[in-house]
Amino acid sequence: MIEFRNVSAGYPGGENILRDISFSVKAGENIGIVGANGAGKSTLLKTALGLLNFEGTVLIGGAEVNKKNLPVIRKTAGYLLQDSDNQMFMPTVLDDMVFAPVNYGKSRPEAEKAAKETLESLGAGYLIDKYNHKLSGGEKKLAAIATVMTAEPEILLLDEPSASLDPKNRRKIINILNSINKTKLIASHDLDFILDTCEKVMILNNGELVCQGKAGEILQDAELLDRNGLELPLRYYGR
Length: 239
Ligand SMILES: Nc1ncnc2c1ncn2[C@@H]1O[C@H](COP(=O)(O)OP(=O)(O)OP(=O)(O)O)[C@@H](O)[C@H]1O
Ligand SMILES: [Mg+2]
Fold this sequence. Notes:
By secondary structure, the protein is an alpha/beta fold. It has ten helices and ten strands.
């Protein structure tokens, strides 16, 4: 579903940030991306979506990521941005939520129904007509997650989905992600969240893929985590 082959990528006019990254994600797999601030997690997700220039090969849902395929890539892969302010750019939550579904052929009433149902499934139906600029940080995150889910993409690329959520909403998102049988790549500093949602994990350090494997093993390896600027998940801390 997702494949990186010897991928190096960077921002316009700058040096490569990601260096020689290779991995693959099978259909239905959930993989966490962890690493210190600036390690390259968000850059990796942006590269998967074709938002950055890169060397090497990236495949999303069987399609090679290139200019020609961008429309199909965007439809296949839903992207939750790290900063919800950049995701929710229309006046109201509903405006943002119906944008992609209508673009992909749903009627406006159908898209509105789907938007309402998704928000309600997150216990946030009350957000539907709110102005984005008047939302709290966590409300904006919930609205952004709902926006990505409403478009029903086959692949979810989620950048810090649990950041700014309260414990109950965080738990709700964990349960919902676990109930959707889609391929997911989740970047997060919340290693407990990764343990609850992902069977595998990869560690990025300074643009390099240091290791990948079972989340339950890698995220218990205090030395490995420490070498890569990370700490044990809370549930393993002090044991
Ligand atoms: N728009 C940009 N232009 C130039 N360099 C950038 C840009 N965005 C990020 N970078 C650089 O790329 C590197 C990786 O950043 P990235 O956002 O991928 O890190 P991250 O692992 O997501 O970090 P965080 O945990 O803070 O979200 C950093 O050194 C950063 O300064
Ligand atoms: Mg980031």
